Amino acid sequence: MPSSPPQSASALADVTASDAALRRFLHGLPGVDSVGLEARAAALGTRSIKTTAKAYAIDLAISMIDLTTLEGADTPGKVRALSAKGVTPDPTDRATPHVAAICVYPDMVGHAKAALGDSGVRVASVATAFPAGRAALPVKLADTKDAVAAGADEIDMVIDRGAFLAGRYLEVYEQIRAVKDACGAARLKVIFETGELSTYDNIRRVSWLAMLAGADFVKTSTGKVAVNATRPNTLLLMEAVRDFRRESGRQVGVKPAGGIRTSKDAITYLVMVNETLGEDWLSDHWFRFGASSLLNDLLMQRQKLRTGRYSGPDYVTVD
């Protein structure tokens, strides 16, 4: 399925010079073959992985999880407990890898940072008026700076979908650039809320827009709407980051989030990464799962492979 942009790498520096130039570039991207995209995503979902490869995939998936709690009722105690679970997912088997990050609201960053210490688990914070993204830019920047000052290693921002859908592409680009600058050394994940973007063409366009603006990751969704991560939407993001690296020389990560709950789901996404992007993206530095319940299923499947017994849901904690 062709998905390369219609311009050379040397032109990328000029496409954001004006709203008209950015519009020409984004609308000049090849249209998405929706039938082909969905057929390929479905075909990749039928791959079977057994025994040793499955054990490797489960451990890899655990190491790629942004273990998330984003509820109004979050407390410091809940965040500390989730952080402990992220560091030691299975206390009965210390060989279990830790997760990639704990993802929380900005006011919980300090609690997560203190609980994680030098474990190697990062702190990710949503920001920019999550989940709607409807706030003035100074508010979004203050939200971001507060999270970074509290110790966030990564920022998950949401775009203004209303501005994007109204065609105000340069406005969205400039907001992402401003948030990226506010992140300092923290890596920036840009959330599109793909379920609200209506078309595959819009998802391709917003992916390029975010990467041109400096995104370190492109992310499907907040997990707060009816349609979150899907295989076709995530495959489209993978194709976009692949093509962007070919054109720009810069690698960008991918994070599907929301609705990924089982080991089978996670392994399917890893197959997609391997088949579409290759080994360069098969690490927690370049691929993440945004999830809350996925870890429990991975731990149960891992325990079954290790012992031959399936312990059931009481083997893991209920977060």
Structural features, described:
This protein is of the alpha/beta class. Helix content is 45%, strand content 10%. The chain has twelve helices and eight strands. Strands 7-6-5-4-3-2-1-8 form an eight-stranded parallel sheet. α2 (34-44) packs across α10, α3 packs across α11 (263-276) and α3 runs antiparallel to α12. The chain is globular, with a radius of gyration of 19 Å. The termini are far apart. 48% of the residues are buried. Residues 1-7 have low confidence and may be disordered.
The count of β-strands is: 8
Structural class: alpha/beta
Strand order of the largest sheet: 7-6-5-4-3-2-1-8
Report the major sheet.
8 strands, parallel
What order do the helices and strands follow?
HHHEHEHEHEHHEHEHEHEH
Beta-strand content: 5-15%
Mean pLDDT: 93
Radius of gyration: 19 Å
Key attributes of the depicted protein:
eight-stranded parallel beta sheet, 319 residues, 10% strand, globular, alpha/beta
